[in-house]
Amino acid sequence: MLFGSVEKPPRLSEFEMEIPEKLIAQEPEQKRDESRLMVLNRAEQQIEHKQFTDIVDYFKKGDVLVINNTRVYPARMIAHKDKSEATVEVLLLRELDNDLWEAMVKPARKVRIGNKLVFGDGVACDVIDNTVSGGRVVRFEYNVPSIYPFIDEHGLPPLPPYIKRETTQEDKSRYQTVYAKERGSVAAPTAGLHFTDDILEKMKAKGVHIVDITLHISLGTFRPIMVEDLTRHHMDSEYFRVPAETADIINRAREKRKKIAVVGTSAVRTLEAVTVSGFKITPRRGWTDKFIYPPYDFKMVDRLITNFHQPKSTLMMLVAAFAKKDFILKAYEEAVKKKYRFYSYGDAMFII
Domains in the chain and their CATH numbers? Predict the structure, then answer.
């Protein structure tokens, strides 16, 4: 009796490649939709070079565009330790309870349980515990009705470390999609940064359904994979929500054989986490630690809009699962040759 061979996951080292530092985008384009667009046709194994404004041409009436409406909050704060001159950078990861937050601190070795971190204007926090990932649990105290306006005014968006410049107030708006609504992410769903209100209106005019999901992106999405065997890597859990209206529109479009295009790896992971019976999604909210890597059978995604990600990252693994590893590596090599801009503020890729 003959058995078909089972495709094994690739090893981490197979995704090794060098991205020239000069191609890592340090600033966003002057206008969001001025970015370049590499189009990958999986069926024909063809690569085309376009501008992001051309993306409207690839959609037809009845198709669906799925966007992640999470909103990045300015989670990076500067405090003084115990009323001294020593400064501490505090990255607020998520609120665990009323005024109780999980945070990363830098320099971590100098921040211990019992320390008080003072932000000013009557706002401070006490360090009350350590986390297993090397962070801290802090409890805020303040003299204002809510801590959120203070964070919004004084905090800055936590730009990735490969952006080697000072964060500016302009990043508060540019490191945010035009459709961001639900506050909760510490990193932007960067594939959506290219969209403008004008592009979205043109899609609606063509009869494209634009639907929301929410996945609040945590640092876990970007945590380096430290094991060669991908099956041993575990993602951090992230909160998601799929509304009933979104599920209904996607399911009806699927029945009519319309295309489901998804903006960003975070939205892909959300849809794949709520797929039932292999052909429908169900409205749900909860937490997911879904890690998608090759080989993977996608159930709800026909097309993917994404950015050029860091090699050996979980985001690159998902894209490689969608378009096949060899095709993605070929595309990345061509992107380097054609001087595409990489990573968060870089150019876009559309896999059809």
Answer: 14-72+171-351 (3.40.1780.10), 76-154 (2.40.10.240)
